[in-house]
Design brief:
This protein is an alpha/beta fold. It is 51% helix and 15% strand. A 5-stranded parallel sheet has the order 2-3-1-4-5, with helices on both faces. It is globular, with a radius of gyration of 17 Å.
Length: 197
């Protein structure tokens, strides 16, 4: 059995990746499994809160928690994608890769896979409007990610979620996948040196 295909949606928070993923799955032309990094963090938080329901003996800064956990959770996320691809499943990766370490790990694992590198873009103003409408995101989070997330100058395909709705974006992606056009951008990408703030 051949390995599955990976659709890597590269975009900031609130750019529309999850909505496009839902539409790709609903189209049912290709059987996809959607893996969101948010699910991995939420599941870990649920595990931690259920296993240790009491207040911790001391408070620690959120940054320390991130330093201890984030890279490990991203590694488990990436390894899970790799495992599903080995099983022959088709996977949509819905994550935000905003630093060189995470990008390089992703590249190391998936450069030799059938990876469709899709840019999911919209304006900074629209991202801010969506954050305000959603109410579950820190205002300015997406805008702060723009320069790091969109540091690439080439994609297999770009979809603008300000100009197209999620269904139209999904249809454009499916058409590209089924067209058998070359999708080699991810294979050509080199390790990045993205400064981490």
């Amino acid at each position: 059995m051949k390995q599955g295909i990976l659709v890597f949606l590269n975009g900031t928070s609130s750019s529309g990746k999850t909505s496009i993923s839902t539409e790709l799955i609903n189209q049912k032309e290709i059987l996809f499994y959607h893996l969101s990094i948010d699910d991995f963090f939420n599941n870990y938080n649920d595990f931690f809160n259920n296993k240790f329901p009491d207040e911790p003996p001391k408070e620690i800064d959120h940054q320390i928690v991130s330093q201890i956990l984030d890279d490990s959770i991203f590694s488990v996320y990436n390894s899970t994608i790799k495992l599903l691809l080995e099983f022959g499943f088709n996977v949509i990766a819905d994550t935000v890769i905003d630093n060189d370490k995470r990008f390089n790990e992703f590249l190391d694992l998936f450069f030799d896979q059938s990876t469709f590198f899709i840019g999911v873009i919209c304006s900074k103003e629209e991202l801010i409007r969506r954050e305000q409408t959603r109410g579950d995101r820190q205002i300015g989070l997406a805008a702060s990610q723009i320069s790091k997330v969109y540091c690439f100058d080439e994609y297999d395909l770009e979809v603008n979620t300000e100009e197209m709705n999620p269904t139209e974006c999904a249809e454009k992606i499916l058409s590209f996948i089924k067209s058998n056009k070359e999708y080699s951008v991810f294979k050509k990408l080199r390790k990045r040196d993205i400064s981490v703030s």
